[in-house]
Amino acid sequence: MRLQFQFLETVNGLDNSNSQIITRIRGQLDKATTAPGMVMISLSAVALGAAFGGYLPLISLWMETFNISFQRIGIVCGASAVGVVSSAYFAPKLAARYGYILTINVGLVVAAIMTVAFRFTDNYGLWLALRFVSGLGLGLHWVLTEAWLANIVTEKYRTRVMAIYATAISIGFAIGPMVIWLFGALSIIPFIIMGALLILAALPILRLKGHEPKDSQTRSASPLILIKKAPTVASACIVVGSVDLALISLLPAMITRTPEAAPILALIIVPAMAIGATILQYPIAIIADKHGLRKVGVMTVCAGLIFASLIPFFLGSVLLTLLFGFLAAGLVYGLYSIGLAMLSRRFSGAEIVAANAGFVILFELSNLMGPWVAGFLLDINMRYGLPIFTFAIGIFYVSISWIRRHTNSNY
After folding, report:
1. Residue 20 lies inside a defined structural domain of this protein
2. What is the pTM assigned to this prediction?
C-alpha cells in the first residue's frame, strides 16, 4: 500500500511538473505574441512557406522531365537568391517611401505572376530570369517582415519569436507539397495554386494597416556588417542557407534516379523535413537560451549534418530516409533561429535592421551556391556527393565558432 501511495505521489508530481512547464511555455508564448503584427506576420509566413515548400520540389520534378542535370537544376532553384540579394539593398528605401504593407504585397504579387509563368516555357534562360524576378518580389517580404519583427519584439523574447516565425514557415513547407500529391507535377494546376498561395500571404499583411514600424530609415544593408562584427552569425547563416535549399531542391530528383528508392519518397521527403523543422524549432530555442546559443548551435548543426549525410545510403528504406530527413532539417534549420538570436544580441538600434538585411543577403547567396556545389558533387558521385558537401559545411561552421568562442559573452 505504501508503495502504491509513493507511486501515486510520483505520478502526481510528474503531472504537476508537466503542468507547470506547459503553463510556463504558454505564458512565454502569450508575452511573445502580444506585439501588434506578430500573429499576422506569422500567418503570412505560413502561406509563404506553403508556396516555397511546394514550389521548389515542383520545379525540380518539372525540370527532371527534360533530363536536366543536377547541377543545372540546382542553379535554377537557387537563381531566386540573386533576386533576393538585390531586393535586400533597396527594400528599406522602398518601405520608407511607400510603406511596409504596400512594398511587401507588391512583391508577393510579382512573385505570384512569375511562379505561374514558369510553367509556360521550357527555355532554360527564361527559367533563370523568372526565378530572379520572383526572388526580387519574395525578398521584399522576407527582409521587411523580419525587420518588422525586430522592431516590435523585445530582446528578451526575440529568440522564441524568431523560432515561432521559423516554425510558421516550416508549417507552410509541410503543407505545400500536398498540392503535388493531389495534382501531380506535370499539370498547370499546382503552379496556379502556388501563385495563389503567394497572393494569400498578402492578406494578413493588409490587416496590419496602422501598425507599421514608424522609423523605416535604416543604414545601407551589407553582409560586411555581419562578416566584420559577427563572423559566427554569418557562418550560421551560410550553413543553413547552403544545406537547406540543397536538400529541398536536390533530394526529390536524387530519389527519382535511385532504382531502389520508393517513388513516393520524392513527394514526401520535403514534408518530412518541414515537419522536423516545425516540431524542433521552439524546443531548440528554449535549450539554446538556457545552455548558450553558441554551444547549442554547434551541437545541433553537427548532429543535423550527420543525419543529412546518411540519407543517400538508406534511400531503400522509406522509414529511415524520412527519419533522417526529419532530424537533418529540424536540427540544421534550428541554427536559423539561433543565428537571428545571436544577431539581435550582437547588434542594437538601427544596426539590427541593417544586420538582418545582411543576414538575408548571405543566406540567399548561400542558397545560390549550396545547390550548385551539392549538385556538382552529386553529378560526380550520387552516393558520396552529399556527405562530402555536408561534412565540409560542418567543418567550416565548427572552425569559425571555435575560433570566436571567447569573443562575445552574450551568446
Report:
1. no
2. 0.73
